[in-house]
């Protein structure tokens, strides 16, 4: 069974994650300086996310279809993305095995992996926040760690 129950949950988590990354200069600045546009294509559940740093000034993140042309595209199962953000994926190995398929100058994206690593520490908190908001909307109690915040 996939980690994300549906496309909406995947979108909520990824949008929150990238908003958190955008607010973390140690992660965001090298990405913005790269001027790359990367599109992530997810399946099981389906989704598409574009991270646009092309102007070198700010990071624009768009969920779903958009007209921005990507420099690099990455195709993977949503569970692979989840495992990646937990720091459990060796990207070169996953590329060689076909668990991640890339189009474009992949070396440019791979060069940014060291800059992305600090975001691995942000991801568990993002998951926690998003899923607790979802539970609260559904009328369920938040996780005890969130109840006092």
Provide a descriptive summary of the structure in words.
The protein is of the alpha+beta class. It has one domain (7-135): SCP2 sterol-binding domain (Nonspecific Lipid-transfer Protein, Chain A, 2-Layer Sandwich). The protein has helices at 7-22, 25-34, 78-85, 91-97, 106-110, 113-116, 119-137, 144-147; strands spanning 37-43, 47-52, 60-63, 72-77, 100-103. A five-stranded mixed beta sheet has the order 3-2-1-4-5. A hairpin with a 3-residue loop joins strand 1 (37-43) and strand 2 (47-52). Helix 1 (7-22) packs across helix 7. The chain is globular, with a radius of gyration of 15 Å. The N and C termini lie far apart (31 Å).
Describe the secondary-structure layout:
Elements: H1 7-22, H2 25-34, E1 37-43, E2 47-52, E3 60-63, E4 72-77, H3 78-85, H4 91-97, E5 100-103, H5 106-110, H6 113-116, H7 119-137, H8 144-147
Parallel strand pairs: 1-4
Antiparallel strand pairs: 1-2, 2-3, 4-5
Residue share in helices? 40-55%
Envelope shape = globular
What is the CATH third-level topology name? Answer: Nonspecific Lipid-transfer Protein, Chain A
Domain count: 1
């Amino acid at each position: 069974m996939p980690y994300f129950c549906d496309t909406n949950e995947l979108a909520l988590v990824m949008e929150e994650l990238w908003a958190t990354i955008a607010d973390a200069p140690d992660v965001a600045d090298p990405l913005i300086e790269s001027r790359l546009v990367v599109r992530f294509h997810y399946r099981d559940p389906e989704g598409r996310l574009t991270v646009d740093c092309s102007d070198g000034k700010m990071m624009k993140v768009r969920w779903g279809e958009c007209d921005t042309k990507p420099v690099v595209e990455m195709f993977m199962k949503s569970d692979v993305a989840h495992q990646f953000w937990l720091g459990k994926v060796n990207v070169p190995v996953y590329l060689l095995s076909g668990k991640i398929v890339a189009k474009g100058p992949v070396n440019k994206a791979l060069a940014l992996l060291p800059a992305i690593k600090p975001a691995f520490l942000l991801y568990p908190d993002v998951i926690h926040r998003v899923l607790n908001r979802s539970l609260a909307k559904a009328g369920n109690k938040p996780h005890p760690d969130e109840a006092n915040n």
